[in-house]
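Worked example 2:
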Amino acid sequence: MKKTVVLLVVAALWLGGCSGMSPTEQRVLSGGAIGASSGALIGWAAGNPAVGAAVGGGAGMLGGLIYDQYQKSQGRP
């Protein structure tokens, strides 16, 4: 029961915390989250998930920023 309540609180904060973000912030955050989770999986397979998550998160944030710049150059918000 305690785990369920904690999960619901975290989910509510996560969803509500992103509501006032700009499209750039949303893309960078999404890229970082995807990169960190992918990096953690790759790092786990290689023996160090923390380093994989850190490297993947940084690369994902950079990728999200590059994607945002591309979208803006195409005239999309």
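The chain has one domain: 21-77. The chain has three helices and no strands.
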